[in-house]
Design brief:
Pfam families: ABG_transport
GO molecular function: secondary active p-aminobenzoyl-glutamate transmembrane transporter activity
Structural class: mainly alpha
Strand order of the largest sheet: 1-2
Number of strands: 2
Largest sheet: 2 strands, antiparallel
Radius of gyration: 24 Å
Number of domains: 1
Shape: globular
GO biological process, one term: p-aminobenzoyl-glutamate transmembrane transport
Protein name: AbgT family transporter
Helix content: 55-70%
InterPro entries: AbgT
Order of helices and strands: HHEEHHHHHHHHHHHHHHHHHHHHH
Length: 518
């Protein structure tokens, strides 16, 4: 892939260019998330000293007890918190869930299953279906993690070029689908496990027995994936298609560009056969799980026979990991990408290396979350914030809209979805729980706000990566090129997804198994 050309012409209007420049300068001043959470920990420690000295306290609505803010900046406080540091990290919920799920996902990914599935889905797509096909492929690509951009953006170019449309537009559609619609997905991935674990940590500051599961938004995200694919298709065909002539590739660049950057446009016969047999294996796995769950006294059920409140759903990360291990082994053996048993632990280790940066951030996040909880600042802010919202008397849906707009704005600067959720969940989840809002509902609202602005911020590494991809086909493409195409899609998705949630809320539909919206 060609390097990003700093001299590329930016076709954006001067006002937009200044706006983007301001965002980029502001964002560049933010520290790495690892250091950001240590800075926040220091601020929390200082705030705890001031608040404790002022004798601030509230009544915990969960227990009825009076809870005072306590400070870590005292001999006893520092001694107690220092004794908790190792435990804070080891018991941090997302650490275990992400690690367990990744063990299975890594085998399926390194065996080539996800890449082949993506290539199969986008091969020989009809001209009338190329936009929704690429959009759906992007929305379903979250298991590929960051490699989704490497695999699907070139494939989007190939799919569009095959039907006589601009490959540059195909790249843009793939990018906005991966980046903005990634949280609208019918499947459960490691990110969902991490989101749910962080929400559980936050919710238990109010209700110690509350558990948020990775499946708690599954119904909502499944419908959202279809809705957003339609929205992307509508905006692309009605708005971006009118500018498609400006996105045609340079003749020289198009002639010399390596199609798909070495990724074949369609899988071969052996891979297709392997995909079919792997599909049967996947179906068989879940049939066996369903059959094992049927007996009332099954160990996968709760002691009282419940299914939703059961080991199956409470420990879904384990079953997901085993699922991906099975499909990775089946596909790998059929395609010979898994040649021997020793390949499996090697793939797992490789997968864990890929999330090592996330684990490093988790160490900082776990200490911040633990201190925030230990000082009782979270409880204090949640109770006082909930009281203030009650006094305002604003309708619940208005509060939701304010939350979406605020988080969407923060997401322009803090582009890591998990880092931003770790920052806002300790406040938003308890505060809204005190207003009788289910944590699963707060998590769904966060998904809407987090996803839709990802494709318009130059602070995202995937954004800059995509600009580089565009320049392999169109040399003068720049930040303005990408923003001018993604902005209308992002705004349309934000509006449509918010409206979908409002309808969902008014109808009182469950967000997932055992997860009511209100």
């Amino acid at each position: 892939m060609a390097a990003v050309d700093a001299t590329a012409v930016d076709p954006a209007p001067p006002g937009l260019s200044r706006f983007l420049g301001a965002i980029e300068r502001t964002g560049n001043r933010l520290p790495h998330p690892f250091w950001l959470f240590w800075i926040l920990l220091a601020i929390t420690a200082a705030a705890s000293w001031v608040m404790a000295a002022a004798g601030l306290r509230v009544t915990d609505p969960g227990t009825g007890r009076s809870v005072a803010v306590r400070t870590v900046l005292s001999t006893d406080g520092a001694r107690e918190f220092l004794s908790m540091i190792e435990g804070n990290f080891v018991t941090f919920g997302p650490l275990a869930t992400v690690t367990i799920v990744m063990l299975g996902v890594a085998v399926a990914e390194r065996a080539g299953f996800f890449e082949t599935l993506a290539r199969k889905a986008l091969a020989r797509v009809p001209a009338t279906s190329v936009v929704p096909a690429v959009a759906l492929a992007g929305a379903l690509s979250k298991f590929l993690s960051d490699s989704a951009y490497i695999v699907l953006i070139p494939l989007g170019a190939i799919a569009f070029q095959t039907v006589g449309r601009s490959p540059v537009l195909g790249m843009i559609v793939a990018f906005v689908s991966i980046n903005a619609a990634g949280d609208a997905n019918p499947l459960i991935a490691p990110g969902d496990a991490a989101f749910a674990a962080m929400a559980t940590e936050a919710a238990q500051t109010v209700s110690p027995h509350t558990v948020v599961r990775p499946t708690d938004n599954m119904y909502f995200t499944t419908v959202s994936a279809v809705v957003l694919a339609f929205v992307i298709t509508f905006v692309v065909e009605r708005v971006l298609a009118r500018r498609e002539h400006t996105l045609m590739p340079d003749d020289a660049a198009d002639a010399t560009a390596a199609p798909g950057e070495g990724v074949r446009p369609a899988p071969g016969p052996r891979e297709i056969r392997a995909l079919k047999l792997t599909g049967w294996a996947a179906l068989g796995y879940w049939v066996l799980i369903a059959l094992a769950t049927l007996p009332r006294h099954s160990p996968l059920r709760a002691a009282d026979g419940a299914i939703v409140e059961s080991p199956l759903f409470d420990h879904i990360a384990l079953f997901l990991s085993l699922f991906f291990l099975v499909i990775g082994l089946v596909y790998g053996r059929l395609t010979r990408t898994v040649a021997a048993g020793r390949d499996v632990p090697a793939f797992m280790a490789d997968g864990l290396r890929s999330i090592a940066p996330l684990l490093v951030i988790f160490f900082a996040v776990s200490q911040f979350v633990a201190l925030f909880k230990w000082t009782n600042i979270g409880t204090f802010v949640a109770v006082r914030g909930a009281d203030a919202l009650r006094e305002l008397g604003a309708p619940t849906l208005i509060l939701f809209l304010v939350l979406i707009v605020a988080v969407a704005g923060l997401n322009l600067l803090i582009t890591s979805g998990q880092a931003l959720w770790a920052l806002v969940a300790p406040v938003l989840v308890p505060m809204l729980m005190l207003l009788h809002i289910n944590p699963a509902t707060t998590m769904a609202l966060y998904r809407i706000a987090d996803s839709c602005t990802n494709s318009i911020t130059p602070m995202s590494t995937s954004f800059i990566l995509t600009v580089g991809f565009l320049q392999t086909r169109k040399k003068e493409a720049g930040i303005g090129t990408l923003v001018s195409c993604t902005l209308p899609v992002a705004l349309a998705m934000l509006l449509a997804w918010t409206l979908l949630f409002v309808v969902w809320w008014l109808l009182g539909l469950p967000l997932g198994p055992g997860a009511p919206v209100r």
